[in-house]
Amino acid sequence: MTLSTMPHQYIDRNSLQVITEKPIADRSIQFLYTTLRENAPAMFRALTSGRMSSLLGYFHYDMPGKNRNCGKDLFNRFGADWQECINPVGFYDSHRKFFERQIRYWETRPMNRKQTTIVSPADSRLLIGSFTETSTLFIKDKFFDLAELLGPDTSWHRRFLGGDFAVFRLTPDKYHYNHVPVDGRVVAIYNVDGRYHSCNPSALITTASLYSKNRRVVTIIDTDVPGGTAIGLVAMVEIVALMIGDIVQAYSEERYDHPQDIRPGQMVKRGCPKSLFRPGSSTDVVIFEPGRIAFAEDLVNNSQRRDVQSRFTSGYNRPLVETDVAARSSIAEPLRQTQQF
């Protein structure tokens, strides 16, 4: 059985149901990341370039004739809820408008009011892990190389060695705004250049440290400040993928009003919109300093289940299962001295 024919399942957090996902363009991704990558590396590099990703994005989301299924039909096709959107359903007359939709998150994505709670930045499939070998969440063959992921400034990755991380994989049907996971002060925000690899599970398994190879935006937030979440430094990495044209910083403290770029020295509030992926599937990685947080118990239990057919489990030879989570939902708390996993 090849990766493209192997089922990929995840757990719905609310219902606890095991859901089978059919990743988009499975056979094409398998061909791209096996046959072409091994036998035609120049063509493989061309297909994962920024120019090709832009052309593919235009073909899928903007080209005339691609918007026949619009409005309710478009939402039904992807299994998304048009009733949670700010604009009426008739507004969504293109695939791009659908992928860049705004929702009434203050009503439809409730957030724990406790300031110390760390929240999910996105509607996504969540995978948790640790850099610590003594942790049951330790992932030896990681999805990324920490130093490479955070870019050339080695002072940052040294702060996160031995810490924990969470990978948030957004599929094309998801709401594509990112939200701030913690309260704190931005100490750095910078771009790291790279390619436009797919976020398909098959691609992530066949190509080592794939997330470290894509173009990305890194934001370092200090939470040990007045009004902060008090869990040390937090790195939030927004990563492009195949057919993602851009990551637009659009921080707003009042719904989506007055969006602005994020700058060093700025205080950011947990749960507020931070940025927008344009459009398609993409990924956030949030990294924590060692010994500062404990993931929610249900996420830990889900990640280690052996009755779920996850491609990550197959690829990494240990239980590694995603949980479908909502933006602004609780994912972790500050680590107490008595807490150990």
Protein traits:
single chain; 23% helix; three-stranded antiparallel sheet; ten-stranded mixed sheet; 341 residues; disordered C terminus; alpha+beta; 11 helices
Model description:
- The chain is α+β, with helices and mostly antiparallel strands and 341 residues long.
- The protein has a domain at 15-21 and 112-334.
- The chain is 23% helix and 24% strand.
- It has eleven helices and 16 strands.
- The strands form three sheets. It has a ten-stranded mixed sheet with strand order 2-1-15-4-5-13-9-8-7-11. A three-stranded antiparallel sheet has the order 3-16-14.
- Helix 1 packs across helix 2.
Beta-strand fraction estimate: 15-25%
Instruction: Assign the structural class, choosing from mainly alpha, mainly beta, alpha/beta, alpha+beta, or little secondary structure.
Output: alpha+beta
Query: What is the helix/strand order?
Result: EEHHHHHHEEHHEEEHEEEEEEEHHEE
Instruction: Report the count of strand segments.
Output: 16
Kindly report the average pLDDT value: 83
Helix content: 10-25%
Uncertain segments: 35-39, 337-341
Q: Tell me the Rg in angstroms.
A: 19 Å
Across the major sheet, the strand order is 2-1-15-4-5-13-9-8-7-11
By DSSP (H or I, 4+ residues per run), the number of helices equals 11
